[in-house]
Amino acid sequence: MKITLLLHNAYAVGAALRGTLAFATALADRHDVELVSMLRHREVPRCTVDPRLRLVPLVDTRVGSDDMAHPLFGEPALDFPAADRHHHQYSRLVDLRAAEFLRGTDADVLIGTRSGVNVYLARFGPRRALRIAQEPLPYDAYDALLHAELARPYRALDALVTTTEGAAARWRTRLPLPGVRVLALPAVIPAPAAPPAAPDADADAGTAAHPPAGTRAAVTAPDANADPPTIVAAGRLIPGERFELLVEAFSAVCAKHPGWRLRIHGEGPERARLRSLIDGLGLTGRAELAGPRSPDGAEFAGASIAASASDTEASGPALVEAMRRGVPVVGTGRPPGPTELIHAGGGGVLGPRDDGRALAGALLDLAGDPARRRTLGAAALESARRHGPEPVAEHYRLLFAELRTTRRSRAVRRALGGARIRARALTRGNERT
Question: Which end of the chain is more exposed for a tag (fewer CB within 10 A), N or C?
Answer without folding.
Answer: C
